[in-house]
Amino acid sequence: MMHLIQIALMLTLGPLVQGVMATLHARLVGRPGPPPLQPYRNLRKLWRKEALVPAGASPLFLAAPGIALGASITLSTLVPPLGAQPRTVDAIAIALTLALWRFALVLAALDTRSTFEGMAASREVTFGSLTEAPLILALASLAFGSGAALASILASAGLLIVCLSETARIPVDNQETHYELTMIHEGLVLEYSGWHLAMLQYASWLRQLSLLLLAAMILPGGAIATLAWLLLFIIAIPLVERLVAKMRFFEVPVLFATATILALTSVVMHVMRALS
Amino acid sequence: MNELQLDFGASALALPFLAAIVLIFPAVTLWTLRRRHRSDFWLLALFAGAMASVLLARSVTAFAIAWEVMALLSAFLVLQHHERRYVRTAALWYLVTSQLGALCILAALALLGTNAASFSFADIARAAPALPAATREWVLALALIGFGSKAGLVPLHFWLPRAHPAAPANASAMLSGLMLSVALYGLLLVALQLASPVPAVFAFVVLGVGLLSAFAGALYACVDADIKRLLAFSSIENVGIVVAALALVLLARQYDQPAIAALALVALLFHVITHAIFKSLLFLIAGTVAESAGTTDLEMLGGLFRSLRYTAPLALLGCAVAAALPPTGGFASEWLVFRAFIGALVEGPLALRIAATVAITVLASSAGLAAIAYIKLYGIGFLGAPRSTHPIERDSFDGSFVGMAWLGVMLAIFGLWPELALQPLERVTQALGFAVPPLGGFPLLPVKLAVLPLAVALFALLRARARIRSAPTWSCGSPVTHRSQYSASAFSNPAALIFRSFLRVDVDDAAQAIAGFVRRAAARARIIQGGLLRVYLGYAALALAAILLLAR
User: Could B326 and A110 be called an inter-chain contact, meaning their C-beta atoms sit closer than 8 Å?
Assistant: First the structure.
């Protein structure tokens, strides 16, 4: 029952988290920025509009927003209930549900025949394949139960790096870019408009909240602590985006290697602790 | 000791593999008959029979004969287009590797037979615990080389990406889908029964080889631009996953973790079956593409969903299964494999846990790379617009489609109701002496949860009929043509650049070097080939004398 309430809250609050982060980011760079509730307004506006579909696209292009949204909802149900002890999480199901999301959107992008979309698709799958290992390892470290604080922090840091990539944030990607050549996530959905885009945006915000919540759950503490960590992440990520410059494309794998090493170290520490 | 007994009979271990043949062969047959290659049909049927007799063999002699028949028939399958030069080269590579592998297998089985003083598998398995350590190591090493080269394990895989694409699609489907599984059966047979228990060192070697194959296969598949070669490399990846899971079975048994061993074995068998089905399906699709578009080169393809109206949805399903996406059979089997490794991570001694950590890292990375390969296959080949002006023949609703659809339906069912396959596999595992935790031990809820995406997608499609409008693609004002599309090699180029140090290692060079050495050695040995009958008779007499001396 608590789990159902949690899922319902996540479904409602995904856009709010995005709005708060966008407002914070704007304030940090010296703009007044949109109000935190702006994402809800955008969704309502887009949902009412008709969707444009590139001429000659396959039915998959029409289905992709639905599959992406479905994958995001599935992901939110895979986040374990807050405060449940011991926390068990299905690392593989989470990783492969994210892969389903990517599969649908990248295929839709390749279907449009646009060079920009192809470029974004190629980059998205490259990063997606590199984040698979840190994602699964960091989530697998949850299977050891809580206890080793340092190990949990390392795993959470690894997962946060994956989050930066999955939610299209600096230093991997830039949500606010309007330059087609540098877009990754925005490039994938370039051809989507109207209610299709509404579904996709809502899906990515829901996915963002789910991933951040997972990263918070890895850290030690009960339900209250997890929420506090989540709040900290929501504040910290715009700050990181303000302080760090976007990386060159071929420097990003180094960042993912770091995430993998963080997650690996965490697992090894857990193993050592469990055996001693 | 009766060396020439030809025992055949069903065994628990062979059942899943036999089931794979029974499920897949009709589909390949339907495809073959519809495509009017009637002459192939008998060859394929004989080949399926040979594979079944390998699985049914219960004695060394029966196994060796059946194996040799299977190997020769498969070489004939590869040679069907022998008028092309590269096919003959590929077949030669294949035959040499295959025969060397068969020699290793024969040696391993003969060692086991002489030790047990019987060539029947039942007696050998009974005598297995008393096997001297040195003999056991020799047997296992020979079996790994012999079966590993047939299964395409790195670094003995070099023939596979040559031979499988050179064969016609229906033969490739049987080779990649089924014959690799038969080779894996051989490895399982030796490791789990004939030479069991296996020392931990060997299990670590198996794990290393499996992980190397999984990663290398996925990486090569990811950067290749030919559908059939991509599929062949992906077979190497999947064989690697299965062999890594076998290593987990052996290690967990060695370190006294029966639950993990049983889970890993169930996962392994399930993955073998899923892989056999989706790989046959994808090779048949590659054949359909080759027949209607005249090529399997992704750089020349595109927009196939328009002409291949029946095949394209099956290709999408096949690619989703191969990329292990929920809610398909590929997801269920990959999920179980990972679940077994994560189980080993949390329980068990240090060595097992470290092995599991490494395995999870490598398998996760290769899963990511394999996903790129299959997104490329479908996204570049079937979506967008054609990249060449070659006319594309439409496909129709016919027998070949029914055959492929049958494979697709099975994959969908395995995704939604994995229990359907898991319950029989669980019984097989029990019959092999593993205590399987009850099926409730597999929390399969998430597999079914993922049905949601499909439901929402359906909703979106229904809604789509009302409020959409067609418009040209945005390309900063320049026209969008088939030339503006991303190409296959550009698509995977970032991954190729990131992993360039891995791709620089060329196993082919090593294989060429070995081949050159063998050729030179053969040239030297030709001195004894005098061409005179009496010299040859002398050799025969000498050999006979040597045998009599040795057997005294």
Answer: no
